[in-house]
Amino acid sequence: MSAPEKIAAEARTEFGKGAARRIRRDNKIPAVIYGHGNEPVHVILPGHQTMMALKHGGANALLSLEIDGSEQLALTKDVQVDPIRRVIEHLDFVAVIRGEKVTVDVPIHVVGEAGPDTLVVNENTVVSVEAEATHIPEFFEVSVEGLPAGTQILAKELDLPSGTTLLADEELLIVNVTEQMSAEALEAELEEAEADLGIEHDPSDEEIAEAQTEAKAEDAAQESGSEGDSDSE
């Protein structure tokens, strides 16, 4: 993890929905810093600079917030984003100090292409670890390049940097490389599952036509058999 980006924060003195809207109209973000037994600290952050810092720092971005002349390291914990405009509406941070160990969920990035006729399933997209606040891994990379079906990658096989301790179960399944199911097998499995649930479908035009053809063939076969019996008499 690179050095935390420094951002000048303003102390927030006005609260409520109206005040929050005014802050956002000025392209700024309301935020709260929790932790270390202190009262929550309410601040206002510059919108664009903060957004870029979070984008660069990843899910566990660490920022150095300058508040009234003092520095506070703040670990990102919750980002509220407007679902339509996709802008940050509010941020929650946890106050940390240099050298302090913190518990975080680090994303898993799967890279590479597994062997032919395989399906790669990312069973867990994050893994819980303990790391120094200033040395949190941005992500863990897992390569599946050329791996055959049946390969399973567990949490204990992750390449953790020095100073990072795995907190998740060592046997936690991270990536599962399975045999790719054919379209026919998938359809058969779906039909079986629907039958178990009692789901019925109206026959398609193709199925109706096929059934009619089979019925005509059976009738023709029966007629042929009847004629043969008559001749023998």
UniProtKB/TrEMBL annotation:
Q: Where is this region: Disordered?
A: 195-233
Which keywords accompany this UniProt record? Ribonucleoprotein, Ribosomal protein, RNA-binding, rRNA-binding
Q: Which ranges carry the Large ribosomal subunit protein bL25 L25 domain? A: 7-93
Identify one Gene Ontology CC term for this UniProt entry. Answer: ribosome
Query: Which InterPro entries does the record cross-reference, listed alphabetically?
Result: Rbsml_bL25/Gln-tRNA_synth_N, Ribosomal_bL25/Gln-tRNA_synth, Ribosomal_bL25_b-dom, Ribosomal_bL25_C, Ribosomal_bL25_long, Ribosomal_L25_dom, Ribosomal_uL5_bac-type
Key word Transcription present? no
Show the stretches that span the lipid bilayer.
none
Pfam families linked: Ribosomal_L25p, Ribosomal_TL5_C
Per UniProt, residues of the Large ribosomal subunit protein bL25 beta domain are 101-179
> Is the keyword Lipoprotein assigned to this protein?
no
* Ranges of Acidic residues composition bias in the record: 195-209
Instruction: Write out the function statement from the record.
Output: This is one of the proteins that binds to the 5S RNA in the ribosome where it forms part of the central protuberance.
Q: How does it assemble?
A: Part of the 50S ribosomal subunit; part of the 5S rRNA/L5/L18/L25 subcomplex. Contacts the 5S rRNA. Binds to the 5S rRNA independently of L5 and L18.
Q: Which NCBIfam families match?
A: bL25_bact_ctc, PRK05618.2-1, PRK05943.1
Q: Which family does it belong to?
A: Belongs to the bacterial ribosomal protein bL25 family. CTC subfamily.
Output this protein's name.
Large ribosomal subunit protein bL25
Its source organism is: Nocardioides baculatus
